[in-house]
Amino acid sequence: MLAFILRRLFQAMIVMLTVAFIAFMLFQYVGDPVTNLLGQDATVEQRQKLRTDLGLDQPFPVQFARFIGNAVQGEFGLSLRQGRKVSALIAERFPATLELAALAAVMGLALGIPLGVYAALRRGTFMSQVVMTGSLLGVSLPNFLIGILFILLFAVTLKWLPSFGRGEVVAIGPFTTGLLTVDGLKHLLLPALTLSLFPMTLVLRLVRSEMLEVLRTDYIKFARARGLPDRRVYFGHALKNTLVPVITIAGLQLGAIIAFAIVTETVFQWPGMGLLFIQAVQFADIPVMAAYLCLIALIFVSINLAVDLLYFAVDPRLRLERSTVGH
Question: What 3-state class would DSSP assign to 85?
Fold first, then answer.
């Protein structure tokens, strides 16, 4: 067990160092931070002084080591566009993205699991075909198109929901949330629904496939032979075993939702990290881009590490394989 954990931690560290190296290379080859900070009219002496202050005159390994040390402490320097600490900008925007991603994940599971069960139990019926056709559209259509259609329908035509911004929020310690206000919920609903469609359709199709597979197993046939009611067979036995891979996919999708909320946040002008990253790309704000890449990589690596350790803890076959390999 300890060897397995150490191996996974080592792999996670290698991934994070690779991402950090890519982020650091942005500073080297994308624009000139000295020119971005001082402008074109700065003198040679001013440029040289700033370059020395920023440590850009140091050898490459020294600069990279300093970058890693600062990144571990959550420091990525100043935003070239706003002149503020990148860590402060991330701290301001992260609650909005986390709130959006969490609600999208909950909506995806709350809709995807029951629809997947229905499509499996009512396979071949008209409504089941409608559900599967809708899931195919959800997987195929890009987020920006779905968001624009939702804005056209619910904001422009019906005028039920706002089309941009975060609305009224409430501060809870260092975090802010719109879940506790009516205006905040109205602003949150459309982007969350847009962002939830892809994970919802993924969960739906996975639940349907796993449910059909489980229903063909011997223990389900035995449960039916004992005369157990269908409700208990379906929801007490089949669904319980179906949800094991679904929980894993849901955990990984949470990281994907946070990472790929860029398009949704841009369409709805949601003030989260995705919109901050897009603005950073437009203005070549390298410190913000580097911080975003490192943070997203950390989220993905942490979730994958947690899933690997959870699998090892709950699946005895993995422990048996490791012990067999050891001998």
Answer: strand
